[in-house]
Give the backbone structure.
Amino acid sequence: MKYHNLHIVSFTIPFPANYGGVIDVYYKLAALNSIGIKVHLHCFQYDRQKAPELERLCESVHYYPRKTGITEQFSLTPFIVKGRRADELLRNLLLNDYPVLFEGLHSCYYLSHPLLKGRKLIYRESNIEHQYYYHLFKAEKRIVPKLFFLFESLRLFVFQGSLKHASCMLAVSEEDTKYLRIKFPGHNVVYLPSFHGNDRISSMTGMGKYAFYHGNLSVAENLQAVEFLIREVFSDLNIPLVIAGLNPPEHLKSLARKHSVEIHENVSAEAMDELLRNAHVNILVTFQSTGLKLKLLNTLFKGRFVLVNPAMLAGTGLNDYCVIAEDASGLRSELERIFRLPFDDSCLQARNNLLSSNYSDSLNARVLADILYPFNPMGSEGY
């Protein structure tokens, strides 16, 4: 029965599944559970409560405190990695010889540990982290966080060398797959898009009354995008903009009020879905192109028109499902055009192609299972 079992080391507690990386982890758990794989989940706890809901999807759930003290900074090991270490975690991984899936570079402290040598160790990439942190450095305006992002980017660049110890790397986008294959020639790098939990298209036909942007509003990258939209795209448009997300700072709320932009902060998943589905256009922009923007995928399954800039699509293969504009002028022009068009049955039918694409959770669960257990002793009916 050991071939049924899998350790997953998560950078945080993946419930509720309400932003980026935790969405991929949570719905991966659900998809693996649906094909009979017994997951032993290991989570680092620091800003979320223990989640009994995870026990329904996992054979066992273990929690470890993340170390976040100032002393964790004084190291060449990245802060986001060093604080996610626990002797108990290593002891638990050594209790058996099950494969280990490390979620994100954050969780890879033990990837190169000599006691795990010879084990099947899988790295799940969510971003090219040093590039992501460098973009955070460029987007951040406050001097102390700005310096942290720069130093962390340098540490992450060096630390990514430890990925050579992974048996396989699972990349979330085609662009990141290319990067990892060039960086680690001869290593097994597989393109496996993020899990997202959508098994049907729930987009509504007809017309909406506003454009919608959503994201974690405490992240510098998203703040940069929102400020760009408010100041350079919607400031002279007669189209309402609605924004929703986690923890918007006061200066953003002040800017929104000045421009009559509506902000919904820290809303429930259900309320977020309603805002997304009722919008006529979901507008998503980014100024850095690594990783797969999970909110884009979720929006395509649930929303009407989706308007993006090219960086949002990099390496996703989702171009045919979106309206694309290069800059502020192009975004304004496309918004005015789209708001004259209904989202009709033909639009809905085209969106249905997603269900049989690389973005099917059920298909990707089977791909992952074949990587974990290439010689399946149970035959094709189960893992």
About this structure: The longest helix spans residues 143-159. The CA atoms of residues 150 and 164 lie 24 Å apart. The chain has two domains: 2-196+359-372, 211-356.
